[in-house]
Amino acid sequence: xxxxxxxxxxxxxxxxxxxxxxxxxxxxxxxxxxxxxxxxxxxxxxxxxxxxxxxxxxxxxxxxxxxxxxxxxxxxxxxxxxxxxxxxxxxxxxxxxxxxxxxxxxxxxxxxxxxxxxxxxxxxxxxxxxxxxxxxxxxxxxxxxxxxxxxxxxxxxxxxxxxxxxxxxxxxxxxxxxxxxxxxxxxxxxxxxxxxxxxxxxxxxxxxxxxxxxxxxxxxxxxxxxxxxxxxxxxxxxxxxxxxxxxxxxxxxxxxxxxxxxxxxxxxxxxxxxxxxxxxxxxxxxxxxxxxxxxxxxxxxxxxxxxxxxx
Length: 311
Description:
The protein is α/β, with parallel strands linked by helices and 311 residues long. The two termini are 13 Å apart. It is 29% helix and 20% strand. It has an 11-stranded mixed sheet, with helices on one face.
């Protein structure tokens, strides 16, 4: 695995493109979250698949799946960024977070579990926060059972698990995430087993787009606010979202969605995670430079305007 390019220097985030000997490409990201600097909180976002077979309607990683990364290829992304920032090999930051959420549905790759098991030996830091985001595909029960055991054994109170739902309307959910997947009852049942008293709540993520539903009364039928929180994010200006006419409900200069207050009244902790709008230009929050490279065409307005530099 070799890094071939990165986005131009930026204080908020950088996107790296790497390839293996077969010419398969991945992306990985490092970022800080203002007002925190790298000494306070440092986030790495790694790829777990070459592309993704799920092909969500607003995600540019889908539609070009070329297989799974090995544990060593996942570690390569982490190791590269750690050595860039910290030549000692030890992340000197108060909060070190690794998200398995860049390219690929992580539950399709058992190597993710191997990385989680090996991580404390590779990076013996007390402030590590592992974070995994999934659409809960059908047929991944074995992965999630192993993940549950790893979490209980190693990361009982630090693990962040997110299920991406995007709509409380089942027809809309299927349009946005076009694969067989766990229903809300299955996700809720698993979440009840995964949650540890005093630990982190499980996140239910909704990238809110116009005309798509987020109904607190539906969530309350399945998801206990004592165990689940709601995370609301914009739909990022990806190539796929533009082609499919999926417009974000959250846009710069507009007050957050009214449904956030309704969810709070229903008893949920709510995170409206907008981040920095500059990340749309960088392409660090979502979207894929690789797809733009492969298509060799134009990209959506407001997205991917931060140039790639060869390394």
